Each structure stands twice: as structure tokens, then as C-alpha cells.
């Protein structure tokens, strides 16, 4: 049986995938969302020439030679401009952020002035024209594009959008992933399992992988190995508006591996099934209209490695979020035998040694072993039919954290 190469599988999975439509969300809910359109300033900032310091607004010509005495004719706190116009020999007490009064052209900081009482000050140091004045539009002008489409809204972007007077922003909808675990042997964490049962773990890691690229995860629980039960969960996913349906387990060739039949029965057109990779060989992908269906293998490590390689890029594309695998070169620390036809993803500990990375694979790589996946911070990538690799040779690693 021919197995689909990993790169081809990813290409087919991403084919014709456009970002989801936009929705408007309040700025307070917009953290880590992706901007759906360029964001232009609705106003100019600062909207007036403003003082950058606490002190006195003066005419530079009046303070060219110091010390000198000036009259204080008014007050200008932030938010309340002085309404008059400064004449020669006059100043206005001013605070950071207040509009520069008409007639003034510089600020003397209060450290360089002495309050003489009775509405007079002595200026101790000269101040050149424009000193400590923030010009109107210093930050941005109305109409300037401040944030590009596709920008992931972080702290600075959110404050900037607010400063530009946007109470809400248009962002790309977050993809919804419905996750359906399958298997008679599974019980949720916290249960008291019978002798033949295990705890269902995959959904938690898969949901986390989805959330890591900005998607929403809907855990539809555990369906027993019965077509009706799986079909009913799939229908629930469709009704919930899932963009992606992920099934866990039941993807292989066993008598209880029903996922393929159920999904096709519910209208999925199969695109590919069974990849040249380890772990993750039974991965299945198809489309049910606009909904993408990914049948992840049941083995826990396979489900998470496939989430990293396929689910994350798909969700990132749907959410218009930048995503790339963190691939690096490292020095292999042990010998590895020649590879077969499946691209291998070997759990390894990647360490920095004298500015270079080293990769030490874990001895046992069974795809049921979550602990080694959790202990690993990278995967050594071995292409199909790679020859034996000796300790000291260079290998490619996919960093996980
Ligand atoms: N004759 C063959 N047998 C198998 C093949 C094959 O090619 N020929 N492929 C093997 C590979 S590779 C994998 S991976 C597994 C995956 O098979 P399924 O996707 O059908 O998964 P299940 O049989 O349902 O479960 C496998 C294993 O994983 C456990 N499991 C399932 N779901 C969960 C979950 N949500 N949380 C935790 N653990 C889960 C399940 O109990 C089994 O132990 O098939 C091989 N067999
Ligand atoms: O995906 Mo299976 O776990 O390749 O062994």
C-alpha cells in the first residue's frame, strides 16, 4: 500500500484554505486576535502641540538670557487648555499633556524655575524654541494606517488602536475545532477505570495545540465504538459550527476502527488516509463541504505529533495567523539506524552546548508513551530511507518548546 509523504499531505490539507471571515470585537476582548483589515487612525495624536513636561510655557526669546523674571498669567493642566495668549514677559504654569498656550513656543521645566509667589517666577536656565513640546501629530495623523491586516494584536497594538479611537476592531474569526474521542476503553480523567479501561488523554493535548494557534476547542467527549454514537457526535460538531472536526482513534484498520465509515456516511469526501510517517501513519483527512475532517490516530504521541504537523498549520491558515515549524540543525548524540519508508519523528532532548544544539533521542519511542513526549523538547526528523546516522553527525530537529 502506498503511503502519502508528509509534505504532500500537508499541501493537500492546506489546499484551498482561506482565512475565515471577519467579526467585530470590543478592544477589551481583542487580545491575541488577528486583525482582518488595516487599521487607520480616526484622529491625530497628539491632537495639539502639547507640553511634554511639568513647568512653565514661555517664549524662548524671553528666557534666552537667564536668570530672568516672568509673570505667571494662568494655569494649564492636562485636559484644560489656557484660553488666553502669552505676551512678552509672560508665562503659564503648565503640566505634562496640556496644550501649549497660544504665544508660547517652549517649556521651562519646573526644576529650572523658582516660584517667587505673587504670580511671578524666576527662570534659571534658558530653553530653546520647541524644547519639551510634542508637536501635533508626533505619534500619528488621522488616516494613517497604524496596523496592517494580519497583525496579531498584542499589548502595544491594542493601546495604539485605543489611542486612535477605535472602541472595537475587525478580527478574523477564531476557527472552531470539535474534538471527538472514540473508544470503548476510554474514560475521562478522574474516573475509576475498570480493569480493561484507560484514561482518555488525547483530547486535552489536541485542544491545547489548537488553542496555541488561536483556535477554539469544543470537546465533545468520548463516543463508544459504535457507528451511531460517533455519527451523533459528528452531527453535534456540525451543528456547533465546527470548521474542523478532529476524531481521535479508530483511524486504523481494526474491526473497531469505524471513523472512516462514519465520516463518509456523514458526507465526508476522503482526501488521503495513511501517511509515510511515524508516529501518525493512520492519519485521515477529508472534507465535508467547508468543514475539514482530520482523523487523528489513537496512540497519544501520534495524535499530538500529527496535531503539531497538520492541525496547527491548518488552524493557523484558517485564522490567518503566522505559523511555521521551528526547524533547526543539531548534533546527534547517539547512533541511529537506517530508516524505513516512513518519515520518523523521534522524541529527543535538545540542549545547547557551547552555542550549538545537541539532540539526544529517548531510547524507547513507542507511540503510546506520553511521558517521553512531555520530557522531549524536540523531535529529530528522519526522512524516509535515511541511511544510518552516527553520533556526531548533523540532524534536523523540530523544536517543540
Ligand atoms: N494492523 C495494523 N494495526 C495497526 C496499524 C496498522 O497500520 N496496521 N497502525 C498502528 C498505528 S501506527 C497506530 S497510531 C494505531 C492507531 O490506531 P487507531 O487510530 O485506530 O487508534 P485506536 O486503535 O483507537 O487506539 C490506539 C491506541 O490509542 C489509545 N487511544 C485511543 N484514543 C485515545 C484517547 N483519546 N486518549 C488516550 N489513548 C487513546 C487506544 O486505547 C489504543 O491503545 O493503530 C496501530 N495498529
Ligand atoms: O501512529 Mo502510530 O503511533 O505511527 O505508531
Automatic annotation (TrEMBL):
Pathway field: Cofactor biosynthesis; molybdopterin biosynthesis
Required cofactor names: Mg(2+)
Reactions it catalyzes: adenylyl-molybdopterin + molybdate = Mo-molybdopterin + AMP + H(+)
Limits of the MoaB/Mog domain: 178-317
Key words, A-Z: Magnesium, Metal-binding, Molybdenum, Molybdenum cofactor biosynthesis, Transferase
Enzyme Commission identifier(s): 2.10.1.1
InterPro entries, per database record: MoaB/Mog-like_dom_sf, MoaB/Mog_dom, MoCF_biosynth_CS, MoeA-like, MoeA_C_domain_IV, MoeA_C_domain_IV_sf, MoeA_linker/N, MoeA_linker/N_sf
Superkingdom of the source species: Bacteria
Family membership: Belongs to the MoeA family.
Function of the protein: Catalyzes the insertion of molybdate into adenylated molybdopterin with the concomitant release of AMP.
Name of protein: Molybdopterin molybdenumtransferase
Amino acid at each position: 500500500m502506498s503511503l502519502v509523504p508528509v509534505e504532500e499531505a500537508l499541501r493537500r490539507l492546506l489546499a484551498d484554505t482561506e482565512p475565515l471571515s471577519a467579526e467585530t470585537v470590543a478592544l477589551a476582548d481583542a487580545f491575541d486576535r488577528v486583525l482582518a483589515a488595516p487599521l487607520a487612525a480616526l484622529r491625530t495624536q497628539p491632537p495639539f502641540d502639547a507640553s511634554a513636561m511639568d513647568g512653565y510655557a514661555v517664549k524662548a526669546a524671553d528666557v534666552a538670557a537667564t536668570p530672568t523674571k516672568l509673570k505667571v498669567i494662568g494655569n494649564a493642566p492636562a485636559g484644560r487648555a489656557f484660553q488666553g495668549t502669552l505676551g512678552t514677559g509672560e508665562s503659564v504654569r503648565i503640566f505634562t499633556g496640556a496644550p501649549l498656550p497660544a504665544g508660547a513656543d517652549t517649556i521651562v521645566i519646573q526644576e529650572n524655575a523658582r516660584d517667587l509667589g505673587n504670580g511671578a517666577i524666576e527662570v534659571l536656565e534658558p530653553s530653546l524654541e520647541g524644547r519639551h513640546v510634542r508637536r501635533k501629530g508626533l505619534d500619528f495623523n488621522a488616516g494613517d494606517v497604524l496596523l496592517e491586516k494580519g497583525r496579531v494584536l498584542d499589548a502595544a497594538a491594542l493601546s495604539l488602536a485605543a489611542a486612535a479611537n477605535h472602541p472595537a476592531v475587525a478580527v478574523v474569526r477564531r476557527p472552531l475545532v470539535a474534538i471527538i474521542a472514540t473508544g470503548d476503553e476510554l474514560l475521562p480523567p478522574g474516573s475509576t477505570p475498570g480493569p480493561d479501561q484507560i484514561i482518555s488523554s488525547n483530547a486535552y493535548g489536541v485542544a491545547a495545540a489548537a488553542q496555541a494557534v488561536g483556535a477554539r476547542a469544543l470537546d465533545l467527549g468520548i463516543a463508544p465504538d459504535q457507528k451511531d454514537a460517533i455519527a451523533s457526535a459528528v452531527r453535534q460538531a456540525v451543528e456547533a459550527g465546527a470548521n474542523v472536526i478532529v476524531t481521535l482513534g479508530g483511524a486504523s484498520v481494526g474491526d473497531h476502527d469505524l471513523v472512516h465509515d462514519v465520516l463518509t456516511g456523514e458526507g465526508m469526501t476522503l482526501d488521503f488516509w495513511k501517511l509515510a510517517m511515524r508516529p501518525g501513519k493512520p492519519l485521515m483527512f477529508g472534507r465535508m463541504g467547508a468543514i475539514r475532517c482530520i482523523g487523528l490516530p489513537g496512540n497519544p504521541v501520534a495524535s499530538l505529533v500529527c496535531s503539531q504537523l497538520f492541525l496547527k498549520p491548518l488552524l493557523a491558515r484558517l485564522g490567518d495567523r503566522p505559523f511555521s515549524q521551528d526547524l533547526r540543525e543539531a548534533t546527534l548524540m547517539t547512533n541511529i539506524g537506517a530508516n524505513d519508508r516512513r518519515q520518523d519523528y523521534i522524541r529527543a532532548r535538545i540542549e545547547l552546548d557551547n552555542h550549538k544544539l545537541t539532540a539526544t533521542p529517548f531510547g524507547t519511542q513507542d507511540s503510546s508513551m506520553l511521558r517521553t513526549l512531555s520530557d522531549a523538547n524536540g523531535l529529530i526528523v528522519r526522512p524516509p530511507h535515511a541511511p544510518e546516522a552516527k553520533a556526531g553527525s548533523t540532524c534536523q530537529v523540530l523544536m517543540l518548546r
